[in-house]
Amino acid sequence: xxxxxxxxxxxxxxxxxxxxxxxxxxxxxxxxxxxxxxxxxxxxxxxxxxxxxxxxxxxxxxxxxxxxxxxxxxxxxxxxxxxxxxxxxxxxxxxxxxxxxxxxxxxxxxxxxxxxxxxxxxxxxxxxxxxxxxxxxxxxxxxxxxxxxxxxxxxxxxxxxxxxxxxxxxxxxxxxxxxxxxxxxxxxxxxxxxxxxxxxxxxxxxxxxxxxxxxxxxxxxxxxxxxxxxxxxxxxxxxxxxxxxxxxxxxxxxxxxxxxxxxxxxxxxxxxxxxxxxxxxxxxxxxxxxxxxxxxxxxxxxxxxxxxxxxxxxxxxxxxxxxxxxxxxxxxxxxxxxxxxxxxxxxxxxxxxxxxxxxxxxxxxxxxxxxxxxxxxxxxxxxxxxxxxxxxxxxxxxxxxxxxxxxxxxxxxxxxxxxxxxxxxxxxxxxxxxxxxxxxxxxxxxxxxxxxxxxx
Amino acid sequence: xxxxxxxxxxxxxxxxxxxxxxxxxxxxxxxxxxxxxxxxxxxxxxxxxxxxxxxxxxxxxxxxxxxxxxxxxxxxxxxxxxxxxxxxxxxxxxxxxxxxxxxxxxxxxxxxxxxxxxxxxxxxxxxxxxxxxxxxxxxxxxxxxxxxxxxxxxxxxxxxxxxxxxxxxxxxxxxxxxxxxxxxxxxxxxxxxxxxxxxxxxxxxxxxxxxxxxxxxx
Lengths: 456, 218
What we know:
The complex is a heterodimer of chains A (about 450) and B (about 220).
Chain A: H1 4-13, H2 19-37, H3 52-69, E1 71-73, E2 78-80, H4 84-92, E3 97-100, E4 107-110, E5 122-124, E6 130-131, H5 133-144, E7 151-153, E8 156-157, E9 159-160, E10 163-164, H6 170-189, E11 197-198, H7 206-212, E12 223-228, E13 233-234, H8 236-244, E14 251-256, E15 259-260, H9 267-284, E16 289-292, E17 295-296, H10 305-321, E18 326-330, H11 339-355, E19 358-361, H12 374-389, H13 394-408, E20 427-428, E21 433-434, H14 436-451
Chain B: H1 3-16, H2 19-31, H3 36-56, H4 62-86, E1 97-102, H5 110-121, E2 125-128, H6 135-145, E3 149-153, H7 161-173, E4 180-184, H8 190-195, E5 200-201, H9 205-215
Parallel strand pairs in B: 1-2, 1-3, 3-4, 4-5
Helix pairs in contact in B: 1-2, 1-3, 1-4, 2-4, 3-4, 4-5, 5-9, 6-7
């Protein structure tokens, strides 16, 4: 069994390689070669695939990449070599269940299989979105109070007591602890104090993460992010996050945000990198579960055709060949108070539900603005549950998503995106309920989805 | 071999991202007495522009941009001494020196890499300092290489304030007017760029190149 200190040793003493050569000669060239070797292609009209051999090829290609490349430490410019046996052990040891939260509010995340009888779980919140302090608490409550939401997440505090938060500055400690105080306060307010969280989102460097590892803030039954850098890289900061969990506990959520259109080239190469990233993250991030969050090189959002395909391909590769716990971030282009946000959310929810993922969301408006609310998370859960209960086939899921795309794809060409409105302009902050116009839009979209055949 | 054939071979090598071919084709063109300025403008830049267009059309991705950047760099090493020898103001043909960096505490590099590659492909001489770069180091590098443009990137909202700090530090040192400051990143808006006193921002890499050209009068 690989000791985590071995990872540190390898990061410090592995073979030297310039970062540019890692990116180009190793990652990009290997992705290109494997895409050719396994004849991997994507079809912009087949975003939910049902092709066992394609899925097998994507898994094999990702496995080959992980064994061949290992990982890379940006801090030391050294390759973190990982053997095939270690990759295999990592796969064997991938947790199949993880309990998050405590008491009556605890939930068990599980490794979903394809066509799993068990329903996916839902994290509610706008992960990592910059949110001003004055609306932070009502914003997180808007998700926590939703009955279908199982687990809580949140945005990032960008100011505390009127002071601008800067990463790596002592104020990051204050902001991360303040975030956790609001989260715990919010959970108590909605009567779900034991609900598990994926939090410390205000910890952009390792500082906040270290400062929040205390039962008053982030409990051992909660989870935190251990990000990988693009692509297949770690650094001392993120290794510190993993180390921080060694004795204290906390559930480690690996976060490789593979760039679709980046070093992997198109969607096929990006899916291969995503698979390899999880196999590496088992060891370098000590992952208890994996966040699935491919990012579009131009549009960011997870609702573009190519990113939806990568989500489907990555989740299915694991669900079919090495089930592990995958939680998919939903990051729509559009923001709260727009119908497009709801269509984008529905498309993401269906793709994930039939491909083997749990869901987290929504990072509305690309997670760039506080234009997010609990209402879209409600729809995310409702749509995913409906498709699950209907036992929607992947073929039908694909047909459904293809019908949704024309309803929102225009936002990618819009000069300024489709940011919608801030939380305090779509929710009543006293009652923490959607304003009438936003509620009406939601009802209208739900009616449309029902007319399209979804049993909501 | 005609001049056009030489120039096309250079452009093709850049488009294909073949560094050795680009250097060889440049050498061959020089040996055939093709004017070095023609090599720069009608060979290398022609190829670079095509690479940029293909990236915009989703036909090329980041690796192709990086490979083209390498090919361009290799060929420039061959042609630059000849250019300088023949044209006293040859450095001006390089369109301007750029220092690019993701500011301190931010470790995201893809957007910055794309912009750096596109600027290189457009003929700028780019010194890419990488990620998590202290603002003092960025200014020192800009001073050292006599850059015209400082291009700053930050994805994280909580790292963006360091861009403002850099501008304030330039002002404090009395050298703000020497530089065009361009800022970018997913959360950077034109209003924010204006508010911190930057000279501009762009919504994508192609627009960043246009903006850089415009700001230094190319």
